[in-house]
């Protein structure tokens, strides 16, 4: 068989979680919460399972969930997505991203991707015959070089993929970045695919600015979100895609043949849970405290801590401590120290040596302190 993805192996998340398991290491690698979702949300799932919400949901998703998403998005951004024509419930953000990319990209089209990049974007582009065009950023980057981005645009550029708050760096885009994106995408008629799965995890008083908050951008964007991050339910694989009706109509042509629809009782449960905004607006404070706890506990190791502005990741540079490449160090720390992390080089499409590790702090305080203790002891 001729591989359609000859350069793709098993993802780094699967690899590091397996290594953590093998060596009984604390898993600060793969990004998922160690704690459970709220008992109230569990009871809602139970309620809908028991009240017969167990057959196919409508292809675009359960209407109450689409209505709840329309409302929360309007309140945050002022943009009105119509629940019937503009919102589709997906199997996680992964499906939303894959379908959005498949909807837009034709063979030979170029797609601008900032790297470090989440690992699902590039394979999706390539499966559609597209060509990823990278704007490479150091994982310690402070601001985006928009002149560099512009220099990558050609007459074949069809789309640009953005991610804020960003995985792996924790960078949160400023209003000026979104304005630059708006003028670039208007000038070159680009479709924007915006990965906003960490929309409710921003720190130190920062605001998440969705592409939906700039009407000219919203009109040319697919906004991809996920309840996995917001409600500590990554295993439910429940996400969504917001886009104007003409884009959504094309998106749904693919979504309907990929999965048709996604898990019904969970959609009703999340719809009801979303009616209380405190359920998601409290998330930033929850994770900011964990970030601070972890960073305080590792501050004497000698790592250079990259400010984590959002998401549940802390990046550390160890260039001053070791010459090892990041994959070798992440594996060695897992085996010998008992703490697993993710080598940030895995988020680049080519060899890099930025000597940066990503730690996930979506863990119990006890786990974070224990991991920090092991790292300190190994110093
Ligand atoms: N995008 C980013 C940046 C992510 O970190 C993740 C989850 N790890 C996803 C997309 C995928 O989200 P989901 O689990 O809802 O498919
Ligand atoms: N998004 C998660 C992370 O960045 C992993 C998701 C996955 O394992 N596919 O760690």
Would you mind describing this structure in some detail?
Its cofactor is pyridoxal 5'-phosphate. Pfam families: Aminotran_1_2. GO terms for molecular function: transaminase activity. This protein is 40% helix and 15% strand. The radius of gyration is 20 Å and the shape is globular. The longest helix has 15 residues, at 63-77. α4 packs across α10. It contains 15 helices and 13 strands. By secondary structure, it is an alpha/beta fold. It has a 7-stranded mixed sheet, sandwiched between helices. It folds into 2 domains: 12-30 and 282-377, Aspartate Aminotransferase, domain 1 (Alpha-Beta Complex), CATH 3.90.1150.10; 46-277, Aspartate Aminotransferase, domain 2, CATH 3.40.640.10. It has helices at 12-22, 39-50, 63-77, 92-104, 121-127, 146-151, 175-187, 215-218, 227-230, 245-258, 264-273, 278-281, 283-297, 326-337, 365-377, and strands spanning 26-27, 87-91, 110-115, 131-136, 157-163, 191-195, 221-226, 238-242, 304-305, 313-317, 339-340, 342-343, 356-360.
């Amino acid at each position: 068989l001729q591989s359609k993805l000859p350069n793709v192996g098993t993802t780094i998340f699967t690899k590091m979680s397996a290594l953590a398991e093998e060596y009984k290491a604390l898993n600060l690698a793969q990004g998922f919460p160690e704690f459970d979702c709220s008992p109230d949300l569990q009871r809602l799932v139970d309620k809908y399972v028991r009240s017969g919400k167990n057959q196919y949901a409508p292809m675009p998703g359960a209407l109450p969930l689409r209505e709840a998403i329309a409302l929360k998005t309007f309140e945050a951004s002022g943009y009105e997505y119509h629940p019937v024509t503009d919102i589709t419930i997906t199997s996680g953000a992964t499906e939303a991203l894959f379908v959005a990319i498949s909807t837009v990209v034709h063979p030979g089209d170029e797609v601008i991707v900032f790297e470090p990049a989440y690992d699902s974007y590039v394979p999706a582009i390539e499966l559609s015959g597209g060509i990823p065009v990278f704007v490479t950023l150091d994982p310690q980057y402070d601001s985006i070089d928009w002149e560099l981005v512009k220099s990558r645009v050609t007459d074949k550029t069809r789309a640009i993929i953005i991610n804020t708050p960003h995985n792996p760096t924790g960078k949160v885009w400023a209003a000026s970045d979104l304005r630059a994106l708006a003028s670039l995408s208007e000038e070159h008629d680009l479709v924007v695919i915006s990965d906003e799965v960490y929309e409710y995890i921003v720190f130190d008083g920062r605001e998440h600015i969705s592409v939906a908050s700039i009407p000219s951008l919203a009109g040319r964007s697919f906004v991809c979100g996920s309840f996995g991050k917001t409600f500590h339910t990554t295993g439910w694989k429940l996400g969504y895609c917001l886009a104007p009706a003409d884009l959504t109509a094309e998106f749904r042509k693919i979504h309907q043949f990929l999965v048709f629809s996604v898990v019904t009782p969970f959609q009703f449960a999340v719809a009801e849970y979303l009616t209380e905004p405190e359920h998601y607006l409290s998330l930033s404070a929850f994770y900011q405290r964990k970030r601070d706890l972890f960073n305080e506990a590792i501050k004497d190791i000698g790592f250079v801590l990259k400010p984590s502005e959002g998401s549940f990741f802390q990046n550390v540079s160890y260039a001053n401590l070791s010459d090892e490449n990041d994959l070798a160090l992440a594996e060695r720390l897992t085996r010998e120290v008992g703490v697993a992390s993710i080598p940030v080089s895995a988020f680049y499409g080519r060899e890099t040596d930025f000597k940066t590790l990503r730690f996930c702090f979506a863990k119990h305080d006890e786990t974070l302190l224990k991991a920090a203790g092991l790292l300190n002891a190994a110093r």
